Amino acid sequence: MQPTHTEKGTYKDALLPVEDRVGQLLSQMTIDEKIGQLVQPFGWEMFTKNIDHSISLTPECKEDLRHSRVGALYGTLRADPWTGVTLETGLSKTFAAKATNSLQHFQIMNSRLGIPLLFGEECSHGHMSIGATVFPVPLSAASAWHPELYQKMCRAIAAETRSQGGAVTYSPVLDIVKDPQWGRTEETFGEDPYLTTVYAKAAVNGLQGNDIRDHDSIVATLKHFVAYGSSEGGRNAAPVHMGPLELHSIDLPPFRAAVDAGALSVMAAYNEIDGVPCTSSAALLKDLLRKEWGFDGMVITDCGAMHMLAHGHNTAENEEDAAAQSLRAGVDMEMSGQLFRKSLKRALEQGRVTVHDLDSATGAVLRLKFHLGLFEKPYVDEDRAATIVGAKEHSDIAEQLAEEAIVLLKNEAATLPLSKNIKRVAVIGPNADHMYNQLGDYTSPQARDQITTVADGVKELLGAEHVTVAPGCRIQGDDRSGFATALKTASEAEAVVMVLGGSSARDFGEGTVDLATGASVVTDNPHNDMECGEGIDRSTLHLLGVQLELAKEVKALGKTLIVVFINGRPILEPWIDDNADAILEAWYPGQAGGRAIARILFGEISPSGRLPLTIPRSVGQLPNMYHQKRTRGKRYLELDLTPLYPFGFGLSYTTFSYGKLDLSASEMKAAGTVQATIDIKNTGQYKGKEVVQLYVTDVHASVTQPERLLKAFKKIELEPGETKTVTFDINSTHLELINAKGEHLLEPGRFVLTVGPNALEGSTAEVSVH
């Protein structure tokens, strides 16, 4: 039941301006209550589940809430091996809503001031709770080059999360990937600042909606602020070596755009930049974010980041110093909450921080709660969650996004699509029928019938009697006991689809697979194949285990080799690139990914995904983003710098021709515009979608620039033989550069516009700016 009245003229009065309510509430709070608002412990540890699916709060939880020692809870509904919450012990749908309501009710009814709790949840590619829709990971979503569809995905995630009580999500990840050996590559939108910026705005608009108080909206948290994807060697949380020019022109623009779009929360990154940890950087969190950009939301640490200041970065002498540095720098809440809880009051008593510092942080937390409307509507409708979480319309979005995100990298002699009249198809490989390997990191335990694997999808299309399945091997390890079965299966089939790649699946306790029979086996020591995800960084990008060996033996049978990669970062296998007849890159495509892959394999839809990052030929080429500077050099002794597949690349079952790029004028004033138009024709036999990409080259600039930068794109659909005219309105925002101070400057001179299907091809025209 929601509160039925408010106290007029007090902080409970919804008619008062938010700032007045914040000020009134702060004036009534004790130091301990203020510190409590900055503390966010792990929510799943605060209660136990009863047989009737109700919950019982732990004695420690009751004491914390009664004395206002907690302002927020992290991952209250999170379920995964890290939390230890399983399908059996976790709460799903209606019961999850009951749980958050129970916690909220106890807090409001038993604390002195009745300040509601803030429930923060993980929602990278779906709410990380039992029964929620599992969408494609962000890297996959970016491969669709369809931000409007991604915004619908975020809207669905917000609705599912808020229906169960969650009010904040720790996404989107706006890190620019510089080295895909980094395990969190899958959580990003790739290597390009413009593509990431477009998706950043779509995420904020989708998650927060038009009104953050709405029961379908949640707060977006931009992370990781900043340059977290640029770490040394692609190692998680390693130092970042970056000058202000690169920081302002490549890594900061997506954050700035998302702040301008109204994002209400930002997470400071673990890493340091040029010796200064982001968690204690007042230059980033106060001077830039708040003063220059006007951000008025809440800043939260990453989990354990404050501890790293004293035990890792060693820029703080002890935990009191770490807590004080973070608070002074502009941190408002600590995820996990341990240092603020233990040390902040002592830091205040020691004069390391002031009451003004504390009030500033507490005010930011309270302001967010007022904006969310939690004082007026602290509870959720417990029956509504059952109809919202995992709704069919959300599953449909997940499937459509997976379909549009799959990238066709190679299709020798029109190997694909396969005919549906085929008598037998062998689906082989460690990712052929492994549901968790298809879902990526930050995934909750799943019921098997909620996930469609590639084997499931092919069986749905052809009928189970036409499909044989064999894992052959695992992602990691040298176990070849499944080779004989896999090769026999392949030899008896007319077509072989090998589903290889990686895994971000943590140990969900689902047992292991007998490679010889393909049957599930219960064991005390299940085989964990995780080779990607948070904290799982690689020194190479080759396939692990004996996957490549299995592919070579299948090819030796004389069979057509169709490879489907399911993975969280690029895979570099020259043999497969040379010898496979067709290659699909699916990343982690989510719960409907197997169906989407099957529909593409058999031509129900034509692939339209395009790469959101460059795939190099060797890790020795890294970093190898398309937007590197002109001065990077030409080649190594062994090879040049050309990629295996360029940024923006992707094939279709049809072909497209690009006409001449025409400009409405060859000269432009600084405040003017020029129209760029080009005709795109479908010259093949299939209906298909093309991603038309506009790149800009600044011929001569005051500071060194990349050879070209993506500045716009449009995804269009064409029938066979159809031609469409695509128009881009070019203005100063397409041509300006960002300097080391973060200033946007349009310098006079010549600019080359290139419109094409990827970063290396296209039709060009030149415009001069006066």
Q: Can you walk me through this structure?
A:
Keywords: Glycosidase, Hydrolase. The strands form 9 sheets. A 6-stranded parallel sheet has the order 4-5-6-7-8-11. The chain has a 6-stranded mixed sheet with strand order 13-20-19-16-14-15, with helices on both faces. It is α/β, with parallel strands linked by helices and 770 residues long. 29% of the residues lie in helices and 18% in strands. Helix 1 crosses helix 14 and helix 6 (147-163) packs antiparallel against helix 16 (392-405). It folds into 3 domains: 122-387, Glycoside hydrolase, family 3, N-terminal domain (TIM Barrel, Alpha-Beta Barrel); 406-604, 3-Layer(aba) Sandwich (Rossmann fold); 656-769, Immunoglobulin-like (Sandwich). It is built from 22 helices and 31 strands. A hairpin with a 6-residue loop joins strand 17 and strand 18. The protein is globular.
Features:
770 residues, alpha/beta, TIM Barrel, Rossmann fold, 3 domains, six-stranded mixed sheet, 22 helices, GH
